[in-house]
Amino acid sequence: MIKEVRLPEISENVETGDVIKVLVSVGDVIDVDQPIVELETEKAVLEVPSPHRGKVTELLVKEGDTIEIDQVILKMDTEAAEGEVAQSAPAADVTPAPSAPKKPAAPAEPPRQPDAPVSVEAMSPAAPTPSAGAATSDETAPASPALRRLARELGVDINVVPGSGPGGRILKDDLKRFARNAMSGAAPTAGKTTASEVTETTKWGPVLREPMSKVRQVTAASMGHAWSTVPHVTQYDKVDITELEELRKQYSKKVEASGGKLTVTAILLKVAASALKVFPQFNASIDIEKNEIIYKRYYHIGVAVDTDRGLLVPVVRTVDKKNITELAGELNRLADRARDRKLTPDEMDGGTFTISNLGGIGGTNFSPIVYAPQVAILGVARARVEPVHINGRFEPRLMLPLSVSYDHRIIDGADGARFLQWIVRALEEPLLLALEG
Ligand code: CAO
């Protein structure tokens, strides 16, 4: 019997993907769950597994094709395969994985299809959102193909339409509102690079043009969107972690024995979750259309991870309910999965706050960009021994620079200062965590 194998639903907001590699050929006998194509979407690189066993009779996609959900990838004869041994997939830089990845039990997550593709290389720091500064291609915009078509018909660049749906998804009403505003001259255009500005560069010397990877496209879109829509303020402070460092060294072996690494990031996860409970406006989102603030009663914290493919932000779930040893283990596991290209899109969704620690690399401080629709992000720079004036004399103390960037629409400067001060005090006086956190 001839069966069609179609692209199943991958994740919320993902409508299309680019075929990076076709892993089977016509005539191959393939097994259930055997990867058939490697697909790059705006959120991850995925292996699409075969839902049936059979002999491939027709291949309907090739490398470089952009395919949509439900598009037929190949046809196979499920009877012709009887008695034949399945052909194994060619060795690829991917990790075979079960067809139904374990879904973390978090309230904010989209449902996953039972035989959805398996992520082998994570990509997205957050659900992509359209950006005034994003690429002009509409492939990264979280909108349905029909809406993209409508946008083209209306002459609207879908990438600059702010989405009000879940995860920044663009809804029909968003497009209509945007088009109306555009006609009345109110559409935002800030941050967009014009074609002439771009071509000008070739006038002054040789250049190299290369296509942006999907990670870069998504990062560009979400950072551009955040930068152009969130009025940022960044608050800076320094915390004396001399005593904490002693404790960290003292307990690091114990934490290592349970599979984690007791770093400042793991400790900050716990401290941040407690601070978010004390200052709930930092664990929120804004619904500007309805003039409402959405306070989240769960504490899922994203941690920026530097990988060879770019910035990825896996999310540690229910941070408030875990101890630092558990958090250290989970952070280690997620950072490894990010670097090994194994994160699933779900593992990067649903964050309510983010920590970005660049201290392992260096720097005296920096201003991180808020991952909209979140409203705040904690930046961590390199701890250094500095002379600190205490009781009339200078003492060498280990000082950790911290910053918090926040959305000034719902967080006032005084609250920004209080929030960061709370974190500073919790690191200097850990009892505060038990008393207030
Ligand atoms: N100050 C001084 N030393 C620091 C430090 C800091 N702020 N943060 C980490 N370190 C040290 C650690 O203690 C560790 O030292 P040892 O090897 O001697 O034990 C070393 O730096 C490496 O730490 P790590 O990276 O293994 O562990 P971590 O838990 O601190 O960080 C992670 C994990 C994933 C946050 C980090 O590896 C990473 O990828 N950072 C980059 C994040 C990034 O790109 N941010 C920018 C995003 S754009 O906003």
Oligomer: single chain
How many strands?
20
Supply the number of helical segments. Answer: 9
Which ligands does the model contain, each kind named once?
oxidized coenzyme A
Alpha-carbon Rg, integer: 24 Å
Account of the 3D structure:
By secondary structure, the protein is of the alpha+beta class. It is 26% helix and 24% strand. The chain is built from nine helices and 20 strands. It has helices at 145-154, 172-183, 195-200, 214-229, 242-257, 264-278, 324-339, 413-428, 431-436, and strands at 2-6, 16-22, 29-30, 35-40, 44-49, 54-59, 66-68, 72-77, 118-122, 232-240, 284-287, 292-295, 301-303, 305-307, 310-312, 315-316, 353-357, 376-380, 384-390, 393-407. Strands 10, 13, 16, 17, 18, 19 and 20 form a seven-stranded mixed beta sheet that branches. A five-stranded antiparallel beta sheet has the order 7-2-4-5-9, with no helix packed on it. Strand 11 and strand 12 (292-295) form a beta hairpin. Helix 6 (264-278) crosses helix 7 and helix 6 crosses helix 8. The protein binds oxidized coenzyme A. The site of oxidized coenzyme A has 21 residues, from helix 6, strand 14, helix 7 and strand 17.
Features:
seven-stranded mixed β-sheet; single chain; 437 residues; globular; binds oxidized coenzyme A; five-stranded antiparallel β-sheet; 20 strands; alpha+beta
